[in-house]
Design a protein that fits this description.
Blueprint: E1 2-9, E2 13-15, E3 21-23, E4 29-37, E5 42-51, E6 61-64, E7 76-82, E8 89-98
Antiparallel strand pairs: 1-6, 1-8, 2-3, 4-5, 4-7
Length: about 100
């Protein structure tokens, strides 16, 4: 399972201690992702975190969520959860989720 995701940084530039404009480099986590099985109260794909610094500002990235066999009987949820990091990440966008059959 994959997702196309992009983030928007909180700002593009900041002023350093001398008042000089510098390119903003975010820190902390941007979002987490995984698969949760509601019926079994388990994670068939364990939750992972994506650091804000691993994502360029406003560029789409294909994120591999993980490999699993969807249940025919259980309720399962694929998710991307934005972290509360407003000083570094303003927005998290998800274009699509898609499965690749192996």
């Amino acid at each position: 399972m994959y997702a196309d995701v992009k983030i928007q940084y909180a700002t593009d530039v900041y002023k350093d201690g001398n008042g000089v404009d510098r390119i903003f480099r975010p820190t902390g986590d941007a979002f987490s992702y995984g698969v949760y099985d509601v019926t079994a109260n388990a994670y068939p794909v364990p939750e992972k975190r994506m650091s804000a610094s691993a994502m360029e500002n406003m560029f789409w990235h294909t994120v591999k969520i993980g490999t699993f066999v969807p249940s025919q009987t259980n309720s399962q949820v694929v998710y991307i959860m934005a972290w509360d990091n407003p000083g570094n990440v303003k927005e998290v966008y998800v274009d699509k989720f898609y499965f690749v059959k192996r």
